[in-house]
Amino acid sequence: MNTISRCNDRAPAQLRPVKLTRGYTRYAAGSVLIEYGETKVLCQASILEKIPSFLKDKEQGWLTAEYGMLPCSTGERMQREAVKGNQSGRTMEIQRLIGRALRAVVDLGKLGERTLQIDCDVIQADGGTRTASITGAFVALCDAVQLLLTQGAIQSNPVLDYVAATSVGLVNGCPLLDLDYAEDSSCDTDMNVVMTGTGGLIEIQGTAEGQAFSRQQLDAMLDLAHQGIGELINLQRQVLAAGQ
Amino acid sequence: MNTISRCNDRAPAQLRPVKLTRGYTRYAAGSVLIEYGETKVLCQASILEKIPSFLKDKEQGWLTAEYGMLPCSTGERMQREAVKGNQSGRTMEIQRLIGRALRAVVDLGKLGERTLQIDCDVIQADGGTRTASITGAFVALCDAVQLLLTQGAIQSNPVLDYVAATSVGLVNGCPLLDLDYAEDSSCDTDMNVVMTGTGGLIEIQGTAEGQAFSRQQLDAMLDLAHQGIGELINLQRQVLAAGQ
Amino acid sequence: MNTISRCNDRAPAQLRPVKLTRGYTRYAAGSVLIEYGETKVLCQASILEKIPSFLKDKEQGWLTAEYGMLPCSTGERMQREAVKGNQSGRTMEIQRLIGRALRAVVDLGKLGERTLQIDCDVIQADGGTRTASITGAFVALCDAVQLLLTQGAIQSNPVLDYVAATSVGLVNGCPLLDLDYAEDSSCDTDMNVVMTGTGGLIEIQGTAEGQAFSRQQLDAMLDLAHQGIGELINLQRQVLAAGQ
Amino acid sequence: MNTISRCNDRAPAQLRPVKLTRGYTRYAAGSVLIEYGETKVLCQASILEKIPSFLKDKEQGWLTAEYGMLPCSTGERMQREAVKGNQSGRTMEIQRLIGRALRAVVDLGKLGERTLQIDCDVIQADGGTRTASITGAFVALCDAVQLLLTQGAIQSNPVLDYVAATSVGLVNGCPLLDLDYAEDSSCDTDMNVVMTGTGGLIEIQGTAEGQAFSRQQLDAMLDLAHQGIGELINLQRQVLAAGQ
Amino acid sequence: MNTISRCNDRAPAQLRPVKLTRGYTRYAAGSVLIEYGETKVLCQASILEKIPSFLKDKEQGWLTAEYGMLPCSTGERMQREAVKGNQSGRTMEIQRLIGRALRAVVDLGKLGERTLQIDCDVIQADGGTRTASITGAFVALCDAVQLLLTQGAIQSNPVLDYVAATSVGLVNGCPLLDLDYAEDSSCDTDMNVVMTGTGGLIEIQGTAEGQAFSRQQLDAMLDLAHQGIGELINLQRQVLAAGQ
Amino acid sequence: MNTISRCNDRAPAQLRPVKLTRGYTRYAAGSVLIEYGETKVLCQASILEKIPSFLKDKEQGWLTAEYGMLPCSTGERMQREAVKGNQSGRTMEIQRLIGRALRAVVDLGKLGERTLQIDCDVIQADGGTRTASITGAFVALCDAVQLLLTQGAIQSNPVLDYVAATSVGLVNGCPLLDLDYAEDSSCDTDMNVVMTGTGGLIEIQGTAEGQAFSRQQLDAMLDLAHQGIGELINLQRQVLAAGQ
């Protein structure tokens, strides 16, 4: 295995500095700015007193997510999706992933007939926006759920477990944790992994960009992801324990 | 004239606390977070090396603006325009206003065949988002222009004057400067005023919400706006003088 | 102040010939063709027995307006908005203005749970289409309201005052009333003013196209608008008094 | 065969009063208001100095048509297509028909690389809007072509023949010429016929609304259409001979 | 009249080989692959337990059709309409025709408050896709109706008559039955005819592509269509008699 | 591990019957109907002599894919995306996956400046449409490439390896190969795996639907996928060896 030189002398198995700021804005039920190094995503959770029509009379709630990037969040300005008139395939793919990941740790039957609406808006993008979105949105979600409990709107906590996400990849054959944009652009394989606080896998999405990867390489990447997500969930625990 | 009690003991002729943070993100040529009290708008300026087709062969540049609100920026979550599939009439009206206001103080002939693209994205909305956008975008614009000068892309500064904006209104017949959301929702008249550093009027948009207003009331509101915009331009001067 | 030569020897403070034709088509509740010189707008008012959802259970009615231009109404053919697939920002801005202006003189509580739907369609455009739309739509609105009264659908007249609109502007520093297209294209400042029959201001929208304008120039333009709107309201009075 | 009582004592083989007003607006190259009784359509022809991409390098011109209805043109107000965001299937079907009918009598090779753009906008609809559009647009087209000839832009007249259209139908088994809206709504069969000045058929579109029709009934309807279109073409001749 | 040489030595009055395959897929209530030579259309009928809002409380059902072409169904790949974002005018025109043709032989009052939804999807296109769609969809419709009868959802058969369609045309002045793509592209006149089992005309749509056609030519084409549709309806009879 | 009873007595590690029919339609460069049991997808490859603008002057080709489902392909009829006006998030996600998977085995530098356009249209859906699409599209792609070689348009074969895909899942904790719709709807985890002929991983997408999955379960699923894809690639080999 080669030695890879990473930005800021980061080790292959090292996350970028992670920062979670709760209460970043004042109107949403939960509002968290998450930073994975230079990647900054504003994750917000709103409580909507309605459910989609396909859940009518099922006595349960729903959780769904939307994702967007500010036009100037990237090195080269992106076109605003509201101007273009639709969301790109990439955007839809990411917001579907965020929703699935969070639903996996929420007991929707305990929510009542309401929707937890998650919004992840990328302020600055340096790789890993979808994984940062999941990790940050989980904290915003907990804050929104706490509000429902405090208001007496629900009786018991529907959150079943922690959930967080990171990317891993192969760069020149070397497994790296938490790719930044430059690494992501040049990697052979890029994999996003979502895991729970008890170590269960929720989602793995691995894509060979340049050449195919082997089972051994997959295992090495999953080991890195397991370790990194453990660290992320420890951070979530600390931040949530601190109170808002 | 009645006495009006404003939030935080603000006087009728008093602006909310204004804060300008330059370099808020790292990729745009100019990036400024502006706060008018609880209203927070991220104003960014990008340099695009192209011009709209209606300016082909006219040997000049262009400046245009886009505006958006994050779904959770308001008390009740708004639908995301990228999901709805188009920008609302209000959004288009505001971004057209921002573009016109800034073009009024830029000599487009000195820009070369490039576009200054302004993006104003509302992080939190408590009234006055369009006026804060103009005041903040002017500073972002200056930073982008400075970059062009430093790079030698342009030879002389195309910025002709300062420009800033505020709202004024009549609440229970009393003229107030810089309305917050609660005041804006209950006012009789709402007026947005854009002025230059030399005191010239660029745009006035006054609307009677409840009942018509008189020429005397118009004059009182314009006096307030004149004073408030003077203070805003002083802040722009200080912030720009400080260097980035 | 310079002397300006206007088309057809019009004086600076002189409106173009104004003509209001009621009953221009047969199906709408109110149908008025208004002409400001060569500008011709068909203003129609329909009664819809429904209200928008945000007014449910508020025991009041609504008034809203739509605006469009026929593709051949302008010197160079415009693209049809139904083909393009959406209304432009300019169109939305204008129809929002028309709706606000008319709502300012209608007591929506007296309308019952129905909507007055205004349609302003420009047959020929020579400047001032938005102000002609407001002046003409007021008459169409009165005819529709009269129909509701005659039918016994409402008991008392919800129309509180007259309303009309004109543009004023500065051309070479000279204030002019009721700009035609050529004047509008070359003016320094363009301002649209909406006033009531009792002289109250409903809306002012002034924009410096070339250079900023002063408070003195604003006052001169408002004086012109006040006079011109007075004449327009006299015409509305005569036309409505004549019976249909 | 039954006797049918028609509005205004019209005979089964009688057209409604037809009126053609040339020069109805001032900006289009050809502008004609056509009336078939209470049906009123503004037909305009513009000259665009461009051709669609599928005709590149074929050394010929093009002719295309668009059709629209003003929202208040019908008894019950229709939704504005620019607001709805697309043209209905009916609208597209009609504008394709108008374009085909007119192209059948124009030698596109003589037009040069330009497009004759036809716009048919329905001011008031009482049945037969598509046939009135064709008859009126032919006159507008001739005026636009005359302009090209006068300007020397083309050397010879590309118009090969007259063309006009009418509807015919079966009401209670009785063939009627030129159906109005009430007749069209209650007929068994509705047929639109487009013919040239030399009696050639360009388009027939017959639809059984209630029950199927026989070859004999088809023949009777075609006889009526032949007679009616002959009268319409005589009117076109007179109007065009009169000069503008 | 000239002699025309057709592909595969086909005579002017000869249909291409026609094949109807029932039960082509397993989920739709009726599913028929129809082939007119190399033209292949999958015609499916679904039963939807809802009706459009304009039929509320009218105690009847509805039948509507949609049409689409697979992108590779044509010689040169077509753009996918789902990607383009709307259906073309041609597509809408065709699906409206299919719906009208089938409704002409269905007693909607006997359907109950449900919709027969027809889908015609072109797998391979060699001319005549709209006429093949009608002929094939009729068989799919009968299968869906039979299912409703078997299930006891309806008591009596709402299908009143057979219906089928063919194209006819003039190529070099010679009338031809059932045009393939090459013939359709080079013909002078193209006509689509829809007839019932009892010989009634449901729809005729004849268009002069190159030059006008005469009444005699129309009669010759209708004679051909009459004969061809008779053969098509015989095939429908045989296929339906065979049981599924 | 429990015993699972599968439809048609299928063993947990058994694929459904797979059938590949080349030359299914006649116009596309490659046209393959693939069946995974009752799932039927028409996979077609077209050669477009153009490249997307982001590849201008890079001297390489491109490969992209589109995916669609016929409205009647599923048990309950789906809305047609062309009518709805856009592709769903699921559709976009799938077509992006198909494109990535195929690009992984194609040397785009050998294609010349042209695009291989893949279309996968689902005729009947019983689970696994995206994996069947990849497996079938690879064969269609080979046929299109063979055509380019035969025509001399390219000199050497750009296809680097075989590629095929299958789904695996956990149902009641039991790993199953190639899920049908009923299994997919009730599984705990659903994973799609794309592998090359030399056993390299191209893409894995595993999603916990009900509860999280462990590393051991992941390994068991990957073993099944490895075996199944080996069988699929053998089938591709046989079919391609047979000649068209």
TrEMBL record, chains A, B, C, D, E, F:
Coiled-coil region list: none
Q: Which amino acid positions bind phosphate, per UniProt?
A: R90, G128, T129, R130
How would you summarize the oligomeric state and partners of this protein? Homohexameric ring arranged as a trimer of dimers.
List keywords of the entry alphabetically: Nucleotidyltransferase, RNA-binding, rRNA processing, Transferase, tRNA processing, tRNA-binding
Q: Keyword Transferase on this protein? A: yes
Its protein name is Ribonuclease PH
InterPro entries (alphabetical): ExoRNase_PH_dom1, ExoRNase_PH_dom2, ExoRNase_PH_dom2_sf, PNPase/RNase_PH_dom_sf, Ribosomal_Su5_D2-typ_SF, RNase_PH, RNase_PH_bac-type, RNase_PH_CS
EC annotation?
2.7.7.56
| Gene Ontology MF term list | 3'-5'-RNA exonuclease activity; tRNA binding; tRNA nucleotidyltransferase activity
Report the source organism.
Nitrosomonas mobilis
Catalytic activity from the UniProt record? tRNA(n+1) + phosphate = tRNA(n) + a ribonucleoside 5'-diphosphate
Q: What is a biological process (GO) this protein takes part in?
A: tRNA processing
Q: Which Pfam families match?
A: RNase_PH, RNase_PH_C
Q: What does this protein do?
A: Phosphorolytic 3'-5' exoribonuclease that plays an important role in tRNA 3'-end maturation. Removes nucleotide residues following the 3'-CCA terminus of tRNAs; can also add nucleotides to the ends of RNA molecules by using nucleoside diphosphates as substrates, but this may not be physiologically important. Probably plays a role in initiation of 16S rRNA degradation (leading to ribosome degradation) during starvation.
All copies of the Exoribonuclease phosphorolytic domain together span 14-144, 161-228
Fetch the HAMAP family from UniProt: RNase_PH
| NCBIfam families assigned to the protein according to its UniProt record, in alphabetical order | RNasePH
Which protein family is named in the record? Belongs to the RNase PH family.
